[in-house]
Write a structure and sequence with these properties.
- The structure is a homodimer.
- By secondary structure, the first copy, chain A, is an alpha/beta fold.
- Helix content of chain A is 46%, strand content 21%.
- Chain A has 14 helices and twelve strands.
- In chain A, the strands form three sheets. Chain A has a seven-stranded mixed β-sheet with strand order 1-2-9-6-5-3-4, sandwiched between helices. A three-stranded antiparallel β-sheet of chain A has the order 10-11-12.
- In chain A, strand 7 and strand 8 form a beta hairpin.
- In chain A, helix 4 packs across helix 5 and helix 7 packs parallel to helix 11.
């Protein structure tokens, strides 16, 4: 990666409230200053929840926690289980019990440092501890920078499926320090790009141009920064119109209906972005079958996802077990499942598809 | 109890939303009709969460569930552990897993039937399942009719203390069927009156007149209905001004700061109302020491609570262990604890008391 000193700030508007997503490469005191300003002068303590794997791997975590301790009151660090393992009600119980043992009160704040799972866990813990305390997020993976920075969706998993228990809880600020990406495994970085491609297809074709200008996934830091900022802007625009997911916000679920089920059924062997890539392939296939997605659009999307290095080989993956998971997915309304289908880059349709049609399309043998 | 056919409806206004609390003696189809109208015509299913002890004891539960099944789609019943045992994250995990296994989607609703613990559990489950589904409540204890009908506060307990994890989640309707009180143990009925006395002292002295007119706790159904309606009105007025407990709503915590700690430290051998009665005694004592509560007011309150049959013998109960619990109570802001003190019936003061002063007042030996 090349180095860059430019910083982009994307504002997220939510009714009377707003917060900023800061995207760039930052020194720890700058992050601490930004977070302190956003959390407010009356904050009484700060619990820093860190992804356990990241805490062991990244040299950036300890200096950041130290900078927070130098700038904010009663800063304590708690390392979560790494990744998806933190997304259980058991772990929420452990974290909130720790928060109580530390004596954090209603004017305390939670800062999450890690990927999407850490954002989900720390945001949900902040949402429910004492019925809600302040929250800020430092996403450290490309996926989390794009996906967890905007929307306020937090959740944990149940045996029955992913993200079935959660809350809407908006952060006071998000600081996406691209420096964390230096230690991110290549596979995770690639997976994170799935959400950027998604934003390109549902709302901002100019993001697709950046990929086209950097074939083979050879993206420098400036390109990454532009992709993250662009994707965050797409999400911010959509969420500003529809905070609680009644209408337009649903387009952000492009690729997620089947994607979530594939991810869960793989027991999370598939990364979220990989599952979303396959989920987009599924939605494109369904769109083609319904005459909504032109073959050229489907081909373009497949080619772009493959060029980025994401999986596009859907065949054989949508098993009866995956379909059963779609049946309890939280986006199922009544006996139909809501899909986001793509008519062109930047042009989507919300379509309710019956479980029968889905089964016929994805399990044609009737298995 | 005498019988009564009168029904009182108290409206609760919360910004753009509002809902009604229906208080009276109802036949099951009437309750089902009221709940169906409040939950909306597009509801896709209804999960009825029942307090397990109530389910075994009360002949009113089964006919009510049958009436709901006759009126609403996909009504299934799930019996919770009885009472406070349901208020754990483990039980929330079990309930939400059951909701998912039944295939309830985002347009489903949860109806809670039971006392305060059931209201807390079912409301919190509704708040977090799929990040929030519709909720309605049938409180079956006097305490729950008064305390859980208004406010939208839901919570479960942690080892560190009571109600430390929760959410604000407003019901679509509350139906307080006084018929359930017929099978309520006398001790629980008496405990429920503590919250009514509290409403009398913080906001509506006319409630105290009803008690004064029925000495020795000999209250008929009409008096009970008037007390419940009056207390619900007090809470509705306060909450309408302050949904998220930043300001005036804090007066509802009269008696709760010490009360919650006593309740938790007793391992719930004390009923909530009994603990709140003792907590009011504690707040009156603190108010007297600070010169805020006139001795005559403290004496009146003690006499009224004792006449109702509630415990007032605080001596020896506020142990160091109880004080430690006050230290992690969710109402502690910084190093001080917020107390509601009473200057006269209907006239309260919010006072932040240092932990040192509290310890000196309640643990004068410095134990």
């Amino acid at each position: 990666m090349s180095s860059s000193s430019s910083t982009t700030v994307v504002g997220v508007e939510l009714g009377a409230r707003r917060y900023d997503v800061h995207i760039g490469t930052f020194v720890p005191p700058a992050i601490a200053e930004t977070l302190a300003a956003a959390l407010g002068p009356d904050v009484t303590g700060v619990a820093v929840l860190v992804d356990g794997d990241l805490g062991k791997r990244s040299p950036r975590v300890a200096p950041l926690v130290e900078a927070l301790q130098a700038r904010l009151p009663r800063v304590n660090r708690y390392d979560l289980p790494g990744g998806e393992a933190s997304k259980t009600l058991d772990e929420i119980g452990r974290t909130t019990q720790w928060l109580a043992e530390q004596g954090y009160d209603r004017r305390a704040a939670v800062i999450g440092i890690g990927g999407g799972a850490t954002g989900d866990h720390s945001g949900f813990a902040a949402a429910v501890y004492l019925r809600g305390v302040r929250f800020a997020l430092c996403p450290t993976t490309l996926l989390a920078m794009v996906d967890a920075s905007v929307g306020g969706k937090t959740a944990v998993d149940l045996p029955a499926g992913k993200n079935l228990v959660g809350a809407f809880h908006q952060p006071r600020a998000v600081v996406a320090d691209l420096g964390f990406l230096e230690t991110l495994p290549a596979r995770e970085q690639t997976a994170g790009l799935a959400e950027v491609v998604k934003c390109g297809f549902i709302a901002d074709p100019s993001l697709l141009a950046i990929f086209a200008a950097h074939p083979g996934g050879r993206l420098g830091l400036d390109a990454i920064a532009a992709l993250v900022a662009g994707a965050v802007r797409v999400k911010a625009d959509v969420v500003a119109e529809d905070e609680h997911e009644g209408g337009r916000r649903a387009i952000l679920n492009f690729g997620h209906t089947i994607g979530h089920a594939l991810e869960a059924e793989s027991a999370y062997a598939l990364l979220h972005g990989e599952a979303v890539s396959l989920g987009m392939i599924a939605a494109l296939s369904l769109g083609e079958a319904r005459g909504i997605t032109p073959p050229a659009v489907a081909m373009l999307a497949r080619a772009m996802l493959a060029d980025v290095g994401l999986p596009v080989d859907l065949e054989g993956r949508v098993t009866p077990a995956v379909m059963a998971r779609v049946g309890v997915d939280k986006k199922r309304a009544g006996k139909k499942v809501r899909f986001v289908l793509c008519a062109a880059a930047g042009d989507t349709r919300l379509v309710d598809v019956g479980l029968d049609e889905l089964t016929a399309h994805f399990l044609p043998s009737g298995a």
